[in-house]
User: Fold this.
Amino acid sequence: MYHNKTLAELSAMLQAGEVTSVELTQHFLDRIKSKDGDINSFITVTEEQALAQAKAADERIAAGNGVALTGLPFAQKDIFCTQGVRSSCGSKMLDNFNSPYDATVVSKLKQAGAVMLGKTNMDEFAMGSSNETSFYGAVKNPWDLKKVPGGSSGGSAAAVAARLAPAATGTDTGGSIRQPASLCNLTGLKPTYGRVSRYGMIAFASSLDQAGPMARTAEDCALLMNAMAGFDEKDSTSIDKEVPDYSAGLNQSVKGLKIGLPKEFFGEGLDPKVAECVDVAIRQYQDMGAEIIDISLPNSGLSVPVYYVVAPAECSSNLSRMDGVRFGHRCDEPKDLEDLYKRSRGEGFGEEVKRRILIGTYALSAGYYDAYYIKAQKLRRLISDDFKQAFEQVDVIMGPTSPNVAFNMGEKSDDPVSMYLSDIYTIAVNLAGLPGMSIPAGFADEMPVGLQLIGNYFEESRLLNVAHAYQQQTDWHQRCPSGFED
Amino acid sequence: MQWEVVIGLEIHAQLMTNSKIFSGASIAYGAEPNTQACAVDLGLPGVLPVLNTEAVRMAAKFGLAIGANVSRHSVFARKNYFYPDLPKGYQISQMELPIVETGKLEIELKDGTKKIIGVTRAHLEEDAGKSLHEDYQGMTGIDLNRAGTPLLEIVSEPDMRSAEEAVAYMRKIHSLVQYIGICDGNMAEGSFRCDANVSVRPKGQQEYGTRAELKNINSFKFVEKAINIEVERQIELIEDGGTVVQETRLYDADKNETRSMRSKEEANDYRYFPDPDLLPVVLDDAYLAAVKATLPELPDVKRDRFIAQYGLSSVDAGILTVSRATADYFEKAAELSAAAKLAANWVMGEVSASLNKNDLDINSCPVTAEMLAGMLKRIEDNTISGKIAKEVFEAMWAGEGDADAVIDKKGLKQITDSSAIEALVDEVIANNPAQAAEFKAGKEQLMGFFVGQIMKASKGKANPAQVNQLLKQKLSS
Assistant:
């Protein structure tokens, strides 16, 4: 069936005329209708628009103007502004926000002719690692409906894992692509900071946010990256550097590849069953001719505290525009300005968002700024320097994506620190601005385990190549959660 | 007790860019509300600022013009506070690393004394929108056309000791920003605004008194009045046993008083931090050299040159160089007529008065510098007298052509033929025998009467010097 095919396979079928985009799109829309009730991976399904885009794509392919993504359906994380479509960011605050413009990523995918099936569920304003903070309700993990799919791109992950879409966009501020990819058995890539435009991506923490693809294979991620990456004059932090053809580099050999294993990623807190899967995967790389080198990232233990100063500080300011004045939720009958602010924001934001606004406001306050924000920025530099040194020795760093497999819904909701620790291996990558991936690497307690690959700046091509090589040797990424095969 | 006044000014100069500092929307004044506010200006979710490099160039130009240190590395920071006309909930400004640091300006007071005023810094920032409280029946309208307009905030040291000094400093900056073409200086439209920090302390005391900040004073006259009334208030308060509190005060021009604005704003913590959406502004020497090459001759240099080159007094040179357009006008007229002092008097006199009367700018003066010079040449070569020249000037103003055409058409050419003047002199003496007799008897003040009669008879055209000479001759013979 179409839904068990990868993007690359569907692309070939479309080009060969074996299927039309309208047929494909209808197929996935039908699956969403019949299966998403249990999972809750979509906030908005854009059926009408999707079919219109599919029709246009079919015409484009017929006219011989199609490119690789033309006519391929995908799911869009609801953090991206989409013109004329609700862009909620998983929040009550933006439940009524129909964006008047398209994010750059959105328009690039549109230009490529990809067909947007709808907008996926996510932790509110991308703040969370379990997708339980969404105003639109929790998303369930297709591998076990009692468990979380990870977050914040949990809707995107669950939708692709359940074969409701062949691929999805995600964003990653502290692990929000890699951790849900790991928990849902997907391949996800967080590019180098500045590789993909942030314009129109609703900001959580501006210096950390980065958009990337989530799919079943590295090959599919490469296809999406070809469309998503590139300089954007509307984003001053995007980098004007040529975009390689990510598909072209996939088949290079990994013989002689130097893989660094940071000892800090294999210590206390890592589930031994997850560690075992990761070990096995690394041995497979060894078998393929890679060289394993033990390294150290001595400051990586500071990542979580540093992140929980920097990210909340930036978000406390980024979310100030949600004030009930121009768009978004406004309380009923405000009696004065202060009442308008207090109630609109009090009602519009959920608990986790409020917690982070409070932390960030505190960290930036007079008298605390130097001790928290400035200190965190200094430590952030040290964390980056660790990686810089490591990449003088190795080509790729590997380790677990998350210390555990998917946990039970509600299990960590009342313990934010325990929740924050589920991103312990991913956060340092964002602080350093490096590209990182998670790829399926086996199962522990019947739940997926992800292997994290970290590359040097702008080495997305290398990461995709290394991931692809593994996927040529293994079939973890082809496993489908039961009940979603047909 | 003897009190000393301490004043520092924060001047906001709106930069004359085409578009906003972080978006492509126009900054033209006076458009319908919210028609010049794009997604970025509205602070919609997901939008990002992109720095207008023209604003950077203008700020650098200002820094170079006051001999300040233009920073090679400056950083935009967010100033966080909530207000309905501040769309993002923060203003993008510069805090720790402004683009211009430590410069100075020399001011000259009415009595001729000069004083150096330190400029602490100047930084780039975006303006907020406007809250419109009238016409909405208890509601507030928000106009975001102004949101994102580029401003250069110029912060002085607390170096001024009187309202007069403050006004002199403000005028100096006002003139300078127009000279270098970065601000139109239009105070009525708010392109040039000023906040004054005012405090008093007993004379001789080292530490400053508590200051009040007077907000948004939009004319030179009001700056002077607001400071004076605030100083009076503070002294009275302290002398009555009270203390000045640090607060923002608003000057009410109608009542000529200052009053406290939002006092809860006192403890505002703006939580400044570097804006992660914008890169640091990095300028190199080549860039600054290129900007410096575009600087025009600055007012002080021009004034000194006018004194040396045209022999003008310091006061006249000062007046003529306040605006670059006036200086250019004068200089053209002086060069073309080769009569600099005469040109100076005419520009400061008739030209300036007529412009004021008609509410015109020197750039739209109907009598161009070339036309003025043409007329001055005719004064110099005795074709017309100074008195007739006023008539010629008025005719030129009214569009009746250049000086020669007017003189020709109206027959205003001076009579210099001595036989013709002699005939007139004889005629006037013959018609006024009584006065002639009195003159001869020693009443020499009647000279003026005779000159007046002769000029009248000649319709003002007789050469006054010749008239005088011939009269004396005839009357004393």
The CA atoms of residues 162 and 206 of chain B lie 17 Å apart. The first strand of chain B starts at residue 3 and ends at 14. Chain B touches chain A through 28 residues (CB under 8 Å).
